[in-house]
Design brief:
By secondary structure, this protein is α/β, with parallel strands linked by helices. Helix content is 44%, strand content 13%. Strands 3-2-1-4-5-6-7 form a seven-stranded parallel sheet, with helices on both faces. α1 packs across α8, α3 packs parallel to α4 and α4 packs parallel to α5. The structure holds hexanoyl-coenzyme A and NADP nicotinamide-adenine-dinucleotide phosphate.
Length: 267
């Protein structure tokens, strides 16, 4: 068995990463490039995605950045076509574009709710659906980035909870439909990850960060590399019998319930 984390295990592979101008998804793209993959990246901002691709090219690896909004199927499809024309195939897809803001349901408009569902859930459908005709089949690996909110109802996150729950079910449905074609479909559920826009929005103060860490079994935030390593494993043949799963990489942050946590506060 190859060591997915030390060898150039993705040599000869082509990965397409959506929502890759920053954060966790850019971390995955950089990690995959170092493991030998050629990388196509998309996000809404031309300037940001070209700069993201440059961080990979500056390390001596091959990457191309394209502006595409995951809410617009045609723009996503065009990006896949460009990537396929350039690299000849697509082996791995990461669907991680997302939007979030902290607001009570009564503090968001219908369009505010819809915006997050459109980016996270419809965007994920668009990315995975558009990818299919370009995939190197059998053997392709599709990975969506979901969140603990998909199964843990969270205050002021109704939009994200609903959208990410949809991603979890979409993952399972597509795994069933596309398994016979040799396409594996999984999702990763990161816990709180350090130095990300997501956590800057959810826990903007040191006090909030400390309160969140106190509720995590491993008592710390994860790193972008933790998520990239998980994505790497799922993208290799080491995971060739894994499909339709939601892989938690969250330090145990979903363990326990409100009652158990409340008891811990009295200890
Ligand atoms: C209430 C808000 C709001 C807020 C925006 N809206 N911010 N409503 N409270 N704080 C409403 C707007 O008023 C508008 O509704 C609607 O949302 C669309 O806003 P736009 O600014 O026009 O949308 P857009 O330019 O498409 O930007 C999308 C966005 C923005 C999601 C609002 O924040 C964004 O681009 N985010 C991308 C980066 C990001 O969020 N990264 C974090 C991902 S982390 P009206 O009715 O006024 O038109 C993540 C965490 C998961 O997903 C879990 C972590 C543990
Ligand atoms: P981030 O840096 O803000 O990443 C989000 C990316 O999505 C950006 O590159 C953004 O680029 C892109 N994007 C947003 N809307 C888009 C659209 N309509 N079309 C195309 N691209 C779009 O946030 P992050 O914190 O690293 O989160 C990355 C992923 O991990 C998300 O799926 C998030 O839900 C998930 N997650 C994060 C955490 C965490 O702790 N941070 C925890 C659990 C899950 P542009 O602005 O250039 O479009």
């Amino acid at each position: 068995m190859q060591n997915a984390f030390k060898d150039k295990v993705l040599e000869g592979k082509v990965a397409f990463v959506a929502g890759a101008s920053s954060g966790i998804n850019l971390g995955i793209a950089q990690h995959f490039a170092r493991a030998g993959a050629k990388i196509a990246l998309i996000s809404r901002s031309h300037e940001k995605i070209v700069a993201a691709a440059k961080t990979i090219a500056d390390e001596g690896f091959e990457a191309t950045g394209m502006a595409a909004d995951v809410r617009d199927f045609a723009s996503v499809d065009a990006a896949f076509k460009t990537a396929h024309d350039r690299f000849g195939k697509i082996d791995i897809v990461i669907s991680g574009a997302a939007g979030n803001f902290v607001a009570p349901a009564l503090g968001m408009s219908s369009n505010g709710f819809k915006t997050v569902v459109d980016i996270d859930l419809i965007g994920t459908f668009n990315v995975l659906r558009a990818s299919f005709q370009y995939l190197n089949r059998p053997g392709a690996s599709l990975i969506s980035i979901t969140a603990p909110q998909a199964v843990n109802p969270s205050m002021f996150q109704a939009h994200v909870c609903a959208a990410k729950a949809g991603i979890n079910m979409l993952t399972k449905c597509l795994a069933m439909e596309w398994g016979p074609a040799g396409v594996r479909v999984n999702a990763i559920s990161p816990g709180p990850i350090a130095d990300t826009e997501g956590m800057a929005r959810l826990a903007p103060s040191a006090e909030m960060e400390a309160a969140i860490k106190a509720r995590i079994a491993l008592r710390d935030y994860g790193t972008k590399t933790d998520i990239a390593d998980t994505a790497m494993f799922l993208s290799t043949d080491n995971a060739k019998y894994i499909t339709g799963t939601i892989v938690d990489c969250d330090g145990g942050s979903k363990l326990g319930d409100a009652g158990a946590n409340a008891l811990a506060d009295f200890k």
